[in-house]
Amino acid sequence: METIGTIENERGRFTGLLIAQLLFIFMMPFVSESTTGTFFRYMGLFGILAAGLYAASKNRTERRISMVILIPVLFAWLGPSLMPKPFDELLRYLTPAICFGFTAYVVIRDVYRHERVTTDTILGAINVYLLISFAFMFLHASVLMIRPDAYLFAGEPILEYFRSTPDSRGFSTMLYFSFTTLTTLGYGDIVPAAAFARLVTSAEAVIGQLFVAIIIGRLVGLEVSSRAMMARSSISESDTALRAPSS
Fold first, then answer.
1. pLDDT tens-digit readout, 5-15
2. DSSP per residue, the chain
């Protein structure tokens, strides 16, 4: 059963996470070619991770799991390089994908426990959709670390394009590719060439479509159920008033 305290707690968790994600998305195109692009990328990424940690910390167990997942991310991005560069880069991109995936799981689980459609239900669903895109952005980057020719841009391996541009532009390009894949928009400028890259891309497209279909069905079902309960409650109150003895 939802309580006022639970609703207020979720509102703060979901709103902060949504703001962090939207700021990062709209910020990247403007800073990707600047000298401060890397700084803003780090700030935006860790802002989302911190907001996600807060959103996924509804109880002590989830808080501990979130911390365990977050520690490798901090080490991979801020710590010293202890492994060969390909493995170090793979860890750098794979750990945030796991962190975003766990946060998406916790948020969508909480959303599905709602008994009626509220602002928090909508915010939670939007958050999960964006988190899925961020998780796959890092998964695509992880595939690139394994197979540099896994994705093609204008007929050439996209990693070659990234090496000739600022590092943060490559970051925003993969986010763009993830969003166009999740929404099945697919302009065709970036193409998965390797088998595993195609598998990851197809999985993201399928998940994106299923999520929209399932979440809309869930929201409509909750709204219909809520209105039916209100109607039955109103009829019951009317019957009670009619049966009450007049003074």
1. 454 455 567 89
2. ---HHHHHHHHHHHHHHHHHHHHHHHHHHHHTTSTTHHHHHHHHHHHHHHHHHHHT-SSHHHHHHHHHHHHHHHHHHHS---S-HHHHHHHHHHHHHHHHHHHHHHHHHHHHT-SS--HHHHHHHHHHHHHHHHHHHHHHHHHHHH-TTSEEETTEEHHHHHHTS-HHHHHHHHHHHHHHHHTT---SSEEE-SHHHHHHHHHHHHHHHHHHHHHHHHHHHHHHHHHHHHHHHHHHHHHHHHHSPP-
Q: What is the pLDDT of residues 137-162, one digit of tens each?
A: 999 999 988 888 899 987 888 877 77
Distance between CA 194 and CA 84 in Å, rounded? Answer: 23
Strand-pairing partners, residue 190, are: 153
First to last CA, the chain: 38
Domain limits for position 144? 4-243
| Residue at token pair 């497209």 | 205
Query: What is the rounded distance in angstroms from the CA atom of residue 103 to the CA atom of residue 20?
Result: 14
Long-range Cβ pairs for the range 35-44 (8 Å, 24+): 37/166, 37/167, 37/168, 37/169, 38/166, 38/167, 38/168, 40/168, 41/167, 41/168, 41/171, 42/77, 44/20
Q: Please count the structural domains in the chain.
A: 1
